[in-house]
Fold this protein.
Amino acid sequence: MINENFLNLKTSYLFGEVDRRTEAYQQRHPGASVIRLGVGDVTLPLAPAVIDAMHAAVDECSRAETFKGYGPEHGRAFLREAIAETDFPGLGIKASEVFVSEGSKTDMGNILDIFAPGLSAGIPDPVYPLYTDTCIIAGHNIKYLPMDASNDFSGDIPEERLDLVYLCFPNNPTGAVASRKKLTEWVEYALRNGSIILYDSAYESYIRDDSIPHSIYEIPGAEDCAIEFRSFSKTAGFTGIRSGYTVIPEGLALDAADGRKVRLADLWERRQNSKYNGNSYISQRAAAAALSPEGRRQTRAQVDSYLVTASGIRGILADAGLDPAGGVNAPYLWVRTPDGMGSWEFFDCLLEATGVVVTPGAGFGPGGEGRFRLSAFGERHASIEAAERIADFVKTL
Ligand SMILES: *Cc1c(COP(=O)(O)O)cnc(C)c1O
């Protein structure tokens, strides 16, 4: 028997459909200048400190005396320690609570292995499609948590109890961040209800406002209700190199059917021991280099560069009266379509008139209808030109 839940997934995957329509446009208009403001992938090359560490790691593997084979499933000590010290300063996160992997997409999907089937799962709407898809595959009951302008794109605390609550700040696609007050309300909700928060902070390094928490563990009590997922993908350009990690505090536990308290870290450790053999040595050396003082300076400059592009796009759209959300502590802008156009309708009209590719909001959940996402990961001049084309196009409507 197959897992019938797969048949409940939506068939057309967002980015595949965007590519299909873009290619069709290019065939209809050969030679047209197409600019993609939809890319959800970084474009700057790896930082020099990262490259040097990778070369050195390859050289180590070239000699029998320093060759590296399998390492600990949860990551090598040098990286787990660097993460605990550098990414969670003063928060009391221990190296043993950090579980290294090849990225947070896999971890956020795999984490469902440690929970019972048929749970209630609160998922932000709109959001990155991963949580919805993996909850559908696992057969969980999804309750959308609307995140829109009415609640500062950070959600209203639900009335009912949910077993799992997914949160993603800074958010993909809205670019929203959550205030300390709002995150405190989410943590208090989870503690009151025995819910587990699955906190995706893949974009934490884009936060430049000192009042905004970078980690859920900045909120008192989060160590008793939250798992945090981080990635080197957007913070250090590792989308192709692969490295990320999951933090599960040692005190985080749920009751088993026989009344025993079971630590979630123990279950995850067991899950990874059974099904995973560790992130590559070269990627782990690269990740540690990204956390070195030099690596941090260099990767921060890259993030700054994306934020400058975001700010440029934001200014042009704001001047055109589009009132964009996001684009300040995040590489994404979340923009209302003009004249109440549907998001795919706007996508098609804009592409046809200007050659600019955006990401239709409806692809991120029902709450994304009537919005589109722009990313600041593209080359600066092309991105600014695309924003100007959008502004000009909107004036013609
Ligand atoms: C890019 C991204 C990730 C990171 O995925 P990796 O598998 O680590 O590359 C996680 N969450 C969100 C919301 C993302 O946009």
User: Anything to note?
Assistant: The chain is about 40% helix and 15% strand. The domain at 48-293 is CATH 3.40.640.10 (Aspartate Aminotransferase; domain 2).
